[in-house]
Request: fold
Amino acid sequence: MGGWRKNGVLVKGREAVDKLELRGLEVRCVIGDLPTERDREQVLTLDVTLACDLSAVCASDRVEDTVDYAVLAETIRDALRQARFRMIESAAARVAAVCLEAPRVSEVWVRIAKPGAVAGLREAAVELVRRRGDGAS
Reply:
């Protein structure tokens, strides 16, 4: 049971789903397929949108009742640093899987950009959406 976006909001049926966003997360990691890319770190820029029920945290005002985005950002950084991916598509899939490990997250949208990947191109980027239980993460 997936959703779609209307003005950046994940929508299921006619009801909007709460979302939490991480925008502009920068990660230095080894990424790329060329031999010259395998021995140096490059910067990736990530945008992540989590579909999750935020009603508990709205009522309690306690971090325990939400997705701790500081912890999640560090977990994403660690996953990308350790993996040394060749393709940004694989990196995006791993980020989605990490996000879906958070108990309150039902769906995640990930955008990863690799600035300067090609001469004369500002950035190469990939976007993907994964849902809990879809088997694609």
Notes: The radius of gyration is 16 Å. The first strand starts at residue 4 and ends at 6. The chain is about 25% helix and 35% strand. The helical segments are 55-60, 69-83, 88-100.
